[in-house]
Amino acid sequence: MAEVVVYGAWASPLSKRVEIALKLKGVKYDIIEEDMSNPSLWLQNYSPILKTVPVLIHEGDPVVAPNVILEYIDETWKGNPIFPQNPKDRARARFWIKFIDEKCVPAVMLACWGRQMVQQMATQEAYNCLKALEDELRGKKFFGGNNVGIVDIAAIFIALWLGVIEEINGVKLLMHEQFPLLSRWVNDILSCSIIQETLPPRDQLISYLRTHNPNSFPQGTTIESSGKTKIPNNAEIPIVAFLPNLQRSLIEDFIKDPNFSTGFNNREMAYFTPSSSEKSPPIPYSYLYTIHGAIRAHQETIKSPKSEVDSMLA
């Protein structure tokens, strides 16, 4: 086995971030593909808390969490730095990574795949996020300047996954007329040889995401005589999570609150109905986008302090 091993998933932009960084550094690695609907015991052993990809194994020791892995890669292999060398520029890059992960991608996902009540709100937020990225590109070929850098790696979701999701859902957020610099960046980043050889084929990604569309009910979902939608325990759609800082325990508390479900129709309730068992199973990450928007749209139905909710979802 190679000195460096990546546990990843071919359709995950978070996994691809790690692979791109390693290739830019010239680091050879082995890739072990995980089925996130049935994670291996090896993955659970290496990442007992997150239990998700990517995981980097270096000299037998695991490094988890995608952005932590990226910093580890840059600090361990000094050649071809992906983070800026200037501390202020490095701090600015970290800001944009956080912005992409916690603001831009969730807004885009909700704008494309959210329920109607959330979609309208998220579309404007997605536009604002894309506009911020557009402004950051002024005078530069890449976010990293003349070369691909850490922010370009973090934004790889915008380059490929966004267009795929737009095509699947028949929506268009990234329009050339409104975002000429960002559109040009997409073409430039996808033309890089390392990016091309690392990202999944577009047609395969379209086919995969069509069958893992979070607007579909999980298999085994039923509607009870009361009209309440019931999801089978541990039902999960293996779509990548893009809200790394949401605390699952707090989300579960929201869902357990009987007031939380007020005002949702049967189809929407599929995302909010807790387990009938005494202990609710972990909430599938693929549902958190709709929950994220619902919390904002219906905060008055949640008994938790608004300041705490706002600090988590802002």
UniProtKB/TrEMBL annotation:
GST N-terminal domain span: 2-81
EC number(s) per entry: 2.5.1.18
Limits of the GST C-terminal domain: 86-209
InterPro entries: Glutathione-S-Trfase_C-like (IPR010987), Glutathione-S-Trfase_C_sf (IPR036282), Glutathione_S-Trfase (IPR040079), Glutathione_S-Trfase_N (IPR004045), GST_C (IPR004046), GST_C_Tau (IPR045074), Omega/Tau-like (IPR045073), Thioredoxin-like_sf (IPR036249)
Record GO terms (molecular function): glutathione transferase activity
PANTHER family, alphabetized: GLUTATHIONE S-TRANSFERASE U8, GLUTATHIONE S-TRANSFERASE, GST, SUPERFAMILY, GST DOMAIN CONTAINING
Name the UniProt record assigns to this protein: glutathione transferase
Organism annotation: Forsythia ovata
